Amino acid sequence: MKVIARKLALTVVALPLIVFLVCLAANRAEADGERIANRQGTARMVAGETGFAGSGSPPGPFGDHWVHLQNNGNVDSYDSREGPYSESQGCEALVGSNVNPNDSAGGVSIDNNGEICGDVAVTTPVAEGDITQQNNAVINGDLRYSQPSWELKPLEMPAWYTAAGGGPEGTITGDYGSKPGKYEITGNGFRAYNNAEVTFSAGRYHFDTFELSNNVEFQVDPDIGEDETIDIYVGGSIIFENNSELLPPIAITGDTTKLRFYFNGTSKVDLSNNVEFYGFIYAPNALIEVYNNDKIYGNLVGKQVYIWNNAGVHYDKALLDQDFGHIFTGGVPALPHERVDWKEIIN
Question: Do residues 191 and 211 touch, judged by C-beta distance below 8 A?
Fold first, then answer.
């Protein structure tokens, strides 16, 4: 009888503990399931929360009218302050749009296996339906509606133009001329011909047009100072042709904070096939088009942004704290995006 009584007592004591452990395991399994679902692209809708707060440029890429990803185009993030893309890759991009009401394509759309590893933000409410995804498109993050708008302010272009060799504020090195392997400046337009190698020092530059032909290697001066940048102002057109490379000063870090293009024109900013670019492009009046297999490290801010056919835009969080001369007002990017273990999923 004593043995039976002892067993019965142990059962009564252990039963609550067993129930607790079963409930704990179930909660953990549910949380793990939500983590897996979120990694697979299930997004949480967030209405009215502040997605933009901080300094620097809009989180990228950002389109005043719209951003569109198609045919395996992808966006994610890294932080060149912590290491190159291969070491600091993450899901902390924030693709955003002001959603111009007069543009039928307004908003952010992802189609045909496009993927955003991060959040999506628009200024309009959920009911407007300005975030769309279809045909196996994936968003690994939150859908943020009713966000503060950005004002993309007009550019103030320099009154002077850059001449051969640079000046008045920066220096260009490389072979000069009009044949392959060389660069030239004619009619205030810069062109680097096939296979040319050019290096820009810190400073400001101004051209009517800027073109890199096939297989050009554009380099940032490796001796550029910690607080120095290369600011290239262009009024008419920007074209980076096939396989052109715009490389960071120290390749191992993938620093994108040194090279900045400010485009005042209305023609398309043309980033052709297999371009590799480390920097920032601001084109408030123009479409920025990212073509086949491009690898864009940094950020793109334009009237519209189109990313397609296996092209990738890798947003560098190091741009969060950069000074861009007050060309943006209104909403500002999220202060370092916080990682979370799991998220509530709302279908």
Answer: yes
Range of the domain at 170: 152-330
Instruction: Say if residue 168 is preceded by a cis peptide, omega within 30 of 0.
Output: yes
Handedness of CA 30, 136, 84, 97 (dihedral sign): negative
| Measured distance CA(321)–CA(335) in Å, rounded | 9
Residue 238 belongs to domain with CATH number: 2.160.20
Average pLDDT over residues 114-130: 96
**First CA to last CA distance, the chain:** 57
pLDDT of 248: 81
pTM: 0.82
Q: Which residues have CB under 8 Å from 85's CB, separation 6+? A: 78, 254, 297, 314
Structural contact between residues 316 and 118, judged by C-beta atoms closer than 8 angstroms: no
Please check whether residue 26 lies inside any domain of the structure: no
What count of residues does the chain have? Answer: 347
d(CA 62, CA 108): 9
Looking at per-residue confidence, does 113 or 333 come out higher? 113
* Rg of the Cα atoms in the chain: 25
- pLDDT score recorded for residue 4: 40
Sign of the CA dihedral running 113, 319, 96, 266:
negative
- In angstroms, the CA 204 to CA 245 distance is 20
**Strand 138-139, strand 230-240: pairing:** unpaired
pLDDT band with cut points at 50, 70 and 90 for residue 246: confident
- Residue 252 within a domain: yes
Degrees, nearest 5: CA angle 18-21-23: 110
Q: What is the C-alpha separation between 315 and 132, in angstroms, rounded?
A: 21
Tokens of 245: 């490379």
157 inside domain: yes
Residue type, 123: T
What is the pLDDT at residue 150?
Answer: 85
Q: Is residue 318 in some structural domain? A: yes
Which spans in the chain are helix H? 2-39, 85-88
Number of domains in the chain: 1
> At 192, is the secondary structure helix, strand, or coil?
strand
